[in-house]
Amino acid sequence: MKRTTILAHSALGALLMSAPLAQAADVYVGATYGIVDMDDIDTSGNFTSDFTTGTVTGVNPPLTIPAGSPVNWDTELDDGDGFGLVFGVQFELFRAEIEYSYTSNDVDGHANVTAAGVALDGIDAGVLLTGNVGDLGTTVGELVGNGQGEVETSTFFLNGYYDFRNSTNWTPFLGAGIGYANVEIDYSPSNVGIIDDDDDVFAWQIMGGVSYAINEQFEITGSIRYRETDEAEFNSSLLQSEFDIETETLIYDLGIRYNFSI
Known about the structure:
By secondary structure, the protein is mainly beta. The chain has one domain: Porin (Beta Barrel), CATH 2.40.160. Helices cover about 10% and strands about 60% of the residues. The strands form two sheets. Strands 1-6-7-9-10-11-12-15 form an eight-stranded antiparallel barrel. It has a two-stranded antiparallel sheet with strand order 3-4. A hairpin with a 6-residue loop joins strand 9 and strand 10 (about 170-185). It is elongated and about 75 Å long. The model is unreliable at about 5-10 and about 20 (pLDDT under 50).
């Protein structure tokens, strides 16, 4: 997470330096909790070297799949949880803030496994093990259908907001942010480790919501965020393969914000 740490330190420095330049600039800190609806993932990759299948019923003799051949499957995810911490500066109707966010989604299951265009769900799982001879008694589809593992993201954003202030305690807002995300993937269906890796990638988000001022110091917030990451690269611990995976997420969150002057 070296790049995300550098980004966070740079953004914090920029915000702190900007505060004294503004007339009547207030600062705030806040925290959020949200429900994380991450889209199901198209787990797509390629073999990085020649792969020789195991010998099972229907695959005898074993096959050698050349390097560069595609391997992919569909990964279904459960809704998860997300937490956020923010530090920001208020400039009249505009706000600038840095945000740290953590989200986690459990894997519900995998399906539709193919290698070099060959559907594997109905073939004995021993086909995935080079040197294996004989059926293991469970198919590839049954093996990967068991949903163990999770997708975790830790993200630093630099966000900008516009507040639609009015004569009430309710303030609608719109915003957007850019940053870096550390995406960590653990695919372990049936306790078989397939992927356990992480990568740092560019991320962006757009958000809209409303805040309610309890008093001059405290506000309650509610928002919806759409968040997306660039493709992250992951190596498989079971197959000689590399995967390019991107995440798309909707987050429905509630938060609290404390305002004070510096």
